[in-house]
User: Which sequence fits this backbone?
C-alpha cells in the first residue's frame, strides 16, 4: 500500500461510516467533518518535499492498510495490567480507547463532557482550523469522540489521561481528540500518556485543542514512552489569553516514528509559554518535534528548551519557530535545541527559526550538536568512575536538564528512571 | 588620485541612488524572448566552439522542464521570461588598447569611479568591466601574465583556454542545479575567468565591475575562478544599474575551485538599483555562487555587502571536500523601503577536519524583509568537522521583518556545530548617548550600524571597506525618525 492508496481507502471508509451510522451520532458536526475530509483529499499526505516534513518520511508509516472502524474495545480495568508503561505512574482518570472516552474518577473541579453526550456544544476547530493540516483534517473527519475537560479553580491533583490504541489483529488508525479549557484564574495539572496494546501496527493521530483563559495556568506533560514499534503523530494547539501561563514537558523516548506538532498562540498581553523536551532515540527510531510560538500581541514571553540524544541509527529532528507579529512589541522569546550525537549512524537535524515583524523585541535562539564533553568524561574518570558509568552519568545529566522544572515529583522520578535505563545507568545511582 | 577618491566618496554619500544614469552607448540587442534560435544567436555572436552550443542547448532544454523556486521568503509578480532580451553588447568591440574603447563607456565607468585606465596603477586593482552582457575592458593583463595568471573575459577564455574551461565550467554549479543556474548556463554571455598557477600569490586584487545599462535586458554573467595548488587570489565584484520603473533580471553563476593549499577570497559589494521609495523598479538578483575546496588545506572565503536589488536570492556556498579545508562566509545585508532579501550560505562538510564559520548581519529598515537562510550539512565522512554560525538581525522601524531560517544537519558524531542568533533593535540608550555628544540621529545610526557590521567589514579589502561603510550609511538614510 502507498500513500495515495491509503488516502482513497480512507475516503471510502468515510463514506461507509457516513452511511452505516446514518449520520448518528455524528450529526451535529457532520458538515464540519465533510469539510475536513475535503481538506484531507486536497492536502493529501505530506512527503519530504513538503518543507514541514523535509526530514521525516512518512513512507514507513503509510504502507499499512489501516482500518479506522472501531475494533472491539478492551476493558479499561484490564488494560492497566496490560500496559507495563503504566507501572509507577499515577492512576488513570480518563481513558481514550481507540479514540473513545471512558472517564474514571476525575477530580471534582474538573468537568468532563464528551462528544457522545454533549454533541453540539463541544468546540471543534476553534484553535486548529480543520483544513489547516492533513492530520488535523483527518482527525476532525474521523474522531469518534471528543473528550472535553475543563478546570475551574485551583486543582492541585494531577489529572492523568491515557490514550490507548488497541488494534485487533489488523493495522489500526486511531483518532483520539481532547478539548481542554482552563477557566480564568484556574490552575491545572495534566498528564497525557500515549500507549498501545496489541500486536498489529498502529498509527495514533492525536489532536488536542487547549484554551487558557485570563490568568489560567496549565502544566502539561506528554508521556511518550511506548515500548512497541508504533507510530504516533500529535498536534496540539494552545491559545493563551492575558497573563495565562503554560508549561509543556514532552518526554519522548518510545515508538518507531514520533512526530509532535506543538502550536502555541499568545493572544493576551503578559502570556507566557515554556516548552521543554527530553528526547532519546535508539535503534532506528525517528522522533521529530515541531514547535511554533506565535507572539500575536505585545509583552508576551516564551522559552523553549529541547535536549536530544541520538544513538545507534536513530534520528532526531527539531524545527522550532518563533513568530513575532507586527505590533507585538516588548516580546521576549528564547529557544534552544541541544543535541548529542553518539553514533556514526545517527542523525540530528535542527531548524531553529525566527520570523520577526516588530522591532522592540528580544529574540534569541541557539542550536548545538556534538559528542559528549571529553573533558567532563576525563574529570569523572580521574576520580575513579569507570568510563561506561561516567558516560551514563553525563548522558543522564544532559537530558535531565529539560525536566528539572517538572513539578510532579513522581513523574520526574519516573522520567529519570527511564532516562537512566536508556543511558545504561543503574537506577540506584540516581538517589 | 586622492582628489579622485574624495570625489567618489562625495558622490557616494549623497542620498539618492547615484548610479541611476543611463549611458548613451550604441548597443546591439538580441530580439526579445528565449528559444533555441536565441541561444544559437548568442553562440554565433560570440563565435564560440561547437561544444559550447551543445552545452547551452542541453541547459536550455533542462531549464524548460524546471519550475521557478518558490520557497524563498520573497514576493514578486511572475517574471515573463519571454519578455526580455538575453543579449546586449556595446557595438564597438574588438579593441586593441584601452584608448580605443568607446569614450561613452569610458565616461560611464569614470562616473562609477572604476579605475579603467592603466595610469591608475596606484589603485592596484586589475579590473574586468562587464557592461550588460559583454566584457568591455580588462586592465593589467600583461603584468598578471608575467606571473602566469590568466585574468580575462569568459568569452576570451573559451577561445584561448578551452581545456581549462571544459574541465571546470559547470563542475561546481551544474546546469541541473537550480532554475536560475540552468537559465544562466543557457544564455550566459560573458563574465570573468581567473586562473592562478601553482604557488603564485596574486599581487593585486582582481576586480570585476558589472553594470546593466540597456533597458528590458537581463544580465547573465558567469565567473569561473581556479586557484591551483598553493596559490592565493583575492577577487572583488561590484555592481550597479540605472534607475528604471520596470524590474530587471540578473541571474549570475560564480564557480570557485581551490586545489591543495589554495586560498580564494571573494568579496562582493552589491549595489544594484533597489527600486524607489514606493518599491517601483529595481533589480531581481537571483545568483548562484558556489565554491569547492577540492584540495587539502584549501580555503574559500566569501564576504558580501548586499545593499542593492529589489530582490536578493543568493546563497554563496562552500563544498568542503579536501581534508582540513576551511569555508568562511561574512555577510552584511541591508534592506530598506520595499527591498526583500533572502540570503545566506551553505556549508557542506565532506572531508575530515573541515571547518566553517558563518557570520551574518542583517539590517532591515522601512517596509523591507530580510531573511537569513543557511544550511550546515555535516556528512558521515566529515570526522571532526567544526562549524560556528552567528547571525544577528537588527530592526530599524516597526514595519520591517527580520527572519532567520538555519538548517543544521549533522550525521557525524565527532562533529561539533554551534548556531546562535539574536534579533534586536538599536537601543534608545545608545542613540541618546550619541546625541548627547552632539552627533545627529542619522549619524548616530550610521555609527552604530557600522560598529555592528565591523566584524564583516573588516574582512573586505581596504578600497571596498570604505565604499561599503558609506553605502551602509546611504542605504539607511531616511529610515529613522
Assistant:
Amino acid at each position: 500500500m502507498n500513500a495515495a492508496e491509503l488516502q482513497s481507502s480512507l475516503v471510502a471508509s468515510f463514506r461507509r461510516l457516513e452511511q452505516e451510522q446514518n449520520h448518528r451520532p455524528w450529526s451535529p458536526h457532520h458538515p464540519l467533518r465533510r469539510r475536513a475530509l475535503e481538506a484531507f483529499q486536497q492536502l493529501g499526505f505530506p512527503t519530504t518535499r513538503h518543507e514541514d516534513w523535509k526530514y521525516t518520511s512518512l513512507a514507513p508509516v503509510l504502507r499499512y492498510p489501516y482500518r479506522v472502524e472501531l475494533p472491539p474495545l478492551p476493558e479499561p480495568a484490564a488494560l492497566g495490567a496490560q500496559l507495563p508503561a503504566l507501572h509507577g505512574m499515577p492512576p488513570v482518570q480518563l481513558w481514550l480507547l481507540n479514540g473513545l472516552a471512558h472517564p474514571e474518577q476525575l477530580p471534582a473541579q474538573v468537568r468532563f463532557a464528551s462528544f457522545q453526550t454533549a454533541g453540539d456544544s463541544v468546540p471543534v476547530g476553534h484553535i486548529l482550523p480543520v483544513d489547516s493540516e492533513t492530520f488535523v483534517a483527518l482527525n476532525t473527519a474521523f474522531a469518534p469522540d471528543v473528550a472535553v475537560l475543563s478546570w475551574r479553580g485551583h486543582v492541585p491533583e494531577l489529572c492523568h489521561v491515557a490514550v490507548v490504541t488497541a488494534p485487533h489483529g489488523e493495522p489500526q488508525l486511531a483518532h483520539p481528540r481532547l478539548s481542554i479549557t482552563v477557566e480564568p484564574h484556574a490552575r491545572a495539572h495534566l498528564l497525557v500518556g500515549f500507549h498501545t496494546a496489541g500486536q498489529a501496527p498502529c498509527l495514533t493521530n492525536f489532536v488536542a485543542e487547549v484554551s487558557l483563559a485570563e490568568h489560567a495556568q496549565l502544566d502539561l506533560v506528554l508521556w511518550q514512552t511506548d515500548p512497541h514499534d508504533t507510530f504516533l503523530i500529535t498536534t496540539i494547539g494552545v491559545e493563551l489569553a492575558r497573563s495565562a501561563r503554560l508549561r509543556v514537558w514532552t518526554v519522548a523516548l518510545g515508538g518507531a516514528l514520533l512526530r509532535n506538532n506543538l502550536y502555541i498562540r499568545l493572544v493576551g498581553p503578559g502570556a507566557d509559554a515554556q516548552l521543554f523536551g527530553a528526547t532519546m532515540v535508539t535503534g532506528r527510531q525517528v522522533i521529530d518535534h515541531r514547535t511554533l510560538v506565535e507572539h500575536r500581541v505585545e509583552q508576551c514571553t516564551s522559552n523553549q528548551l529541547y535536549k536530544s540524544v541520538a544513538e545507534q541509527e536513530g534520528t532526531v529532528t527539531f524545527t522550532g519557530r518563533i513568530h513575532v507579529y507586527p505590533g507585538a512589541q516588548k516580546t521576549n522569546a528564547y529557544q534552544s535545541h541541544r543535541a548529542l550525537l553518539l553514533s556514526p549512524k545517527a542523525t540530528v537535524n535542527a531548524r531553529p527559526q525566527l520570523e520577526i515583524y516588530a522591532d522592540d523585541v528580544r529574540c534569541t535562539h541557539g542550536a548545538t550538536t556534538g559528542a559528549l564533553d571529553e573533558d567532563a568524561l576525563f574529570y569523572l574518570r580521574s576520580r575513579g568512575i569507570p568510563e561506561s558509568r561516567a558516560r551514563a552519568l553525563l548522558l543522564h545529566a544532559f537530558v535531565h536538564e529539560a525536566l528539572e522544572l517538572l513539578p510532579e515529583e513522581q513523574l520526574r522520578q519516573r522520567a529519570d528512571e527511564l532516562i537512566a535505563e536508556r543511558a545504561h545507568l543503574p537506577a540506584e545511582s540516581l538517589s | 588620485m586622492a582628489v579622485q577618491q574624495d570625489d567618489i566618496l562625495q558622490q557616494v554619500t549623497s542620498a539618492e541612488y547615484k548610479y541611476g544614469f543611463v549611458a548613451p552607448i550604441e548597443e546591439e540587442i538580441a530580439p526579445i524572448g528565449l528559444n533555441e534560435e536565441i541561444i544559437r544567436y548568442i553562440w554565433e555572436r560570440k563565435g564560440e566552439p561547437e561544444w559550447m552550443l551543445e552545452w547551452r542547448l542541453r541547459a536550455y532544454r533542462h531549464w524548460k522542464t524546471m519550475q521557478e523556486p518558490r520557497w524563498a521568503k520573497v514576493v514578486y509578480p511572475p517574471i515573463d521570461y519571454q519578455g526580455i532580451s538575453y543579449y546586449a553588447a556595446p557595438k564597438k568591440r574588438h579593441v586593441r588598447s584601452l584608448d580605443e574603447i568607446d569614450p561613452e563607456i569610458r565616461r560611464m565607468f569614470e562616473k562609477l569611479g572604476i579605475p579603467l585606465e592603466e595610469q591608475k596603477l596606484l589603485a592596484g586593482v586589475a579590473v574586468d568591466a562587464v557592461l550588460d552582457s559583454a566584457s568591455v575592458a580588462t586592465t593589467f593583463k600583461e603584468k598578471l601574465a608575467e606571473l602566469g595568471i590568466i585574468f580575462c573575459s569568459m568569452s576570451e577564455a573559451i577561445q584561448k583556454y578551452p581545456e581549462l574551461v571544459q574541465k571546470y565550467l559547470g563542475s561546481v554549479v551544474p546546469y541541473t542545479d537550480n532554475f536560475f543556474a540552468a537559465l544562466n548556463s543557457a544564455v550566459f554571455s560573458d563574465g570573468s575567468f581567473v586562473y592562478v598557477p601553482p604557488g603564485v600569490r596574486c599581487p593585486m586584487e582582481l576586480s570585476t565591475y558589472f553594470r546593466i545599462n540597456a533597458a528590458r535586458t537581463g544580465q547573465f554573467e558567469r565567473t569561473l575562478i581556479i586557484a591551483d595548488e598553493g596559490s592565493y587570489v583575492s577577487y572583488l565584484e561590484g555592481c550597479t544599474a540605472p534607475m528604471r520603473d520596470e524590474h530587471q533580471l540578473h541571474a549570475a553563476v560564480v564557480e570557485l575551485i581551490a586545489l591543495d593549499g589554495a586560498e580564494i577570497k571573494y568579496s562582493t559589494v552589491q549595489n544594484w538599483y533597489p527600486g524607489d521609495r514606493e518599491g517601483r523598479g529595481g533589480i531581481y538578483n537571483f545568483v548562484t555562487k558556489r565554491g569547492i575546496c577540492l584540495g587539502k588545506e584549501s580555503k574559500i572565503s566569501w564576504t558580501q555587502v548586499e545593499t542593492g536589488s529589489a530582490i536578493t536570492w543568493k546563497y554563496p556556498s562552500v563544498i568542503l571536500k579536501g581534508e582540513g579545508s576551511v569555508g568562511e562566509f561574512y555577510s552584511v545585508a541591508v534592506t530598506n523601503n520595499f527591498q526583500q532579501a533572502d540570503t545566506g550560505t551553505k556549508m557542506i562538510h565532506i572531508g575530515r577536519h573541515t571547518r566553517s564559520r558563518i557570520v551574518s548581519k542583517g539590517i532591515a529598515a522601512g517596509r523591507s524583509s530580510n531573511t537569513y537562510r543557511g544550511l550546515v550539512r555535516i556528512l558521515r565522512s566529515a570526522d571532526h568537522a567544526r562549524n560556528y554560525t552567528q547571525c544577528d538581525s537588527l530592526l530599524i522601524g516597526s514595519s520591517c521583518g527580520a527572519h532567520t531560517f538555519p538548517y543544521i544537519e549533522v550525521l557525524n558524531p565527532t562533529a561539533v556545530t554551534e548556531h546562535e542568533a539574536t534579533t534586536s533593535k538599536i537601543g534608545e540608550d545608545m542613540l541618546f548617548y550619541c546625541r548627547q555628544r552632539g552627533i545627529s540621529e542619522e549619524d548616530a545610526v550610521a555609527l552604530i550600524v557600522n560598529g555592528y557590521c565591523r566584524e564583516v567589514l573588516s574582512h573586505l579589502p581596504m578600497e571596498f571597506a570604505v565604499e561599503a561603510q558609506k553605502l551602509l550609511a546611504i542605504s539607511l538614510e531616511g529610515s529613522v525618525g
User: Anything to note?
Assistant: Chain A has two domains: 3-268, 377-431. Chain A is about 20% helix and 40% strand. The longest helix of chain A spans residues 3-20. Helices of chain A lie at 3-20, 30-43, 76-82, 115-118, 134-142, 374-382, 387-400, 409-422.
